[in-house]
Design brief:
Largest sheet: 8 strands, parallel, barrel
Strand order of the largest sheet: 2-3-4-5-6-7-8-9
Strand content: 15-25%
Helix content: 25-40%
Radius of gyration: 32 Å
Number of helices: 17
CATH architecture of the largest domain: Alpha-Beta Barrel
CATH superfamily of the largest domain: Aldolase class I
Number of domains: 3
Number of strands: 18
Distance between the termini: 73 Å
Structural class: alpha/beta
Low-confidence stretches: 498-512
CATH topology of the largest domain: TIM Barrel
CATH class of the largest domain: Alpha Beta
Shape: elongated
Bound molecules: 3-methyl-2-oxobutanoic acid, zinc ion
Mean pLDDT: 89
Length: 512
């Protein structure tokens, strides 16, 4: 039977200390309810003496929450403890979290004190808190940089005073995983009454090691972890709840489990990100936008054959509907087929090769191919373009005005027009407009070499606006005026194909 690791969530206390992340009482209540549904064991609801608003929030959470223990933070100060006890009055299960700095940095330069006096204050705070509640957690602030022998002495004394949980914070995120793990091992071996309390890990992420340190703590005997949703928290943040829950689920060899209902992770992650104005970075483990997104052809092919080729967690396990196979110019045929089939197309293998060539041309100019892009691609693949370029001639140079002559075939009927413009491309596009009898607004126009280096082909990406719709066009040619007209017609044909071509059908020049 594996050991239970208790999840102590401090999103509403350490997480909320981040500038710009402050929550209203109602928002805190919403998050607390979701934390309860997620299955956390302890909710650190706030630091009641810090403000009347914090006091009210802790009180409201105590009234609303049934299962998790509600915890309130204090310094090793009697007044703090009195106020915390008052705020916790309505909690069904309550805990006071009190403590003091134990590193020489804190002892000498923060408290201007000495180890013996700080030890005495810590013990006194635990005894004082015990007058109000049975469950008292002691934090040894900056334990990560504290002398292990003094830390052990302090921990033994506070357990003797009644602490039920002893928190060993790496407050500055300084420790290496091996160091933090060794610290917990040292306490397990040198604190004679350690069996009477639970060791808790509280790690900050200043060097990006919060999760690794917490896991090292668990591997050495800690059975509570202090975490936040999305890893938010002071500076670089705290250990992230979702990472610990999924590591313990994935690595059964650690022989530990949590009671987190992992399928609820993503909903809460999104809620916290929104409410706290802290967007989750795209590549954040477990909950980032790209955590289950595969974009290279080799990976996409592998995932489509067997998800486990490139995924160690099933996205549904954390509440994400499915892995996403992102279509970009680096995708292969397997990914293209997957999306086409999802959209209801069933291309034969020989057709897929042709569609893939077209796909590459379009995808090359875009970050990502959307379903709309694929629909256009497929409509073009199965339908002939209605508007085709037959001829183009441009005369330009100084001091002439550029003149373009364009010949189009529209549903097989040849139409011709001539136009002048402020440049050769402008003249050519105006000639197209005059044949179609329509006016498109050119919103974006980009000319690039087809490949880096000395390629002599130019590619043109453009976006045109028509009746409030935006249409992307792409064209390639050695002649950039020709590439521009191709791109223009590419976009124009989308309007003719995708939109019920009201304007086009109404126009006498394009017969349907
Ligand atoms: O990081 C820290 O040391 C803390 C304590 C107050 C628990 O947040
Ligand atoms: Zn902290």
């Amino acid at each position: 039977m594996s050991d239970k690791v208790f999840i102590f969530d401090t999103t509403l206390r350490d997480g909320e200390q981040v500038p710009g992340c402050q929550l209203s009482c109602t928002e805190k209540l919403t998050i607390a309810r979701q934390l309860e549904l997620l299955g956390v064991d302890v909710i650190e609801a706030g630091f009641p003496i810090s403000s009347p608003e914090d006091f009210r929030s802790v009180e409201a959470i105590c009234k609303a929450i049934n299962d998790p223990v509600i915890c309130a933070l204090t310094r090793a100060v009697e007044k703090d403890i009195d106020v915390a006890a008052e705020a916790l009055k309505y909690a069904k299960r309550k805990r006071i979290h009190t403590g003091i700095g134990v590193s020489d940095y804190h002892i000498l330069s923060k408290f201007k004190s000495n180890r013996a006096a700080v030890l005495e204050r810590g013990v006194a705070a635990v005894k004082y808190a015990k007058r109000y509640v049975e469950d008292v957690e002691f934090y040894a602030e900056d334990a990560g940089r504290a002398d292990n022998a003094f830390l052990a002495e302090m921990i033994e004394a506070v357990i003797r005073a009644g602490a039920t949980v002893v928190n060993i914070p790496d407050t500055t995120g300084y420790c290496l995983p091996a160091q933090y793990g060794a610290k917990i091992k040292y306490l397990m071996e040198h604190v004679s009454n350690i069996d009477q309390a639970i060791i808790s890990c509280h790690c900050h992420n200043d060097l990006g090691m919060a999760t690794a340190n917490t896991i090292a703590g668990i591997a050495n005997g800690a059975r509570q972890v202090e975490v936040t949703m999305n890893g938010i928290g002071e500076r670089a943040g705290n250990t992230s709840l979702e990472e610990i829950a999924m590591i313990l689920k994935t690595h059964q060899s650690l022989n530990c489990h949590t009671e987190i209902k992992t399928k609820r992770i993503f909903v809460l992650s999104t809620l916290v990100a929104k409410m706290m104005n802290m967007p989750v970075q795209a590549n954040k483990a477990i909950v980032g936008r790209n955590a289950f997104a595969h974009s290279s052809g080799i990976h996409q092919d592998g995932v489509l054959k067997n998800r486990e080729n490139y995924e160690i967690i099933a996205p549904e396990d954390v509440g994400i509907a499915q892995s996403s196979i992102v279509l970009t110019s680096r995708s292969g045929k397997a990914a293209l087929r997957y999306h086409l089939e999802r959209l209801g197309f069933t291309p034969a293998t020989k057709d897929l090769a042709k569609i893939y060539q077209k796909f590459l041309l379009v995808a090359d100019g875009k970050k990502e191919m959307t379903d709309d892009d694929l629909m256009v691609l497929m409509n073009q693949a199965v339908k002939e373009d209605r508007v085709k370029l037959e001829r183009l001639q441009v005369v330009c140079g100084q001091p002439l005005h550029p003149v373009a002559t364009v010949e189009l075939s529209i549903d097989g009927k040849i139409e011709r027009a001539c136009a002048t413009g402020n440049g050769p491309v402008n003249a050519a596009l105006l000639a197209v407009d005059s044949i179609l009898g329509l006016k498109f607004e050119l919103e974006e126009y980009l000319v690039q070499a087809m490949a880096n280096g000395s390629s002599d082909e130019g590619k043109v990406n453009m976006r045109i606006l028509y009746e409030k719709g935006q249409y992307h066009g792409f064209g390639v040619d050695k002649d950039i005026v020709l590439a521009s007209v191709k791109a223009y017609l590419h976009a124009v044909n989308k309007i003719a194909i995708i939109k019920a071509p009201k304007a086009l059908t109404a126009n006498k020049k394009i017969a349907v």
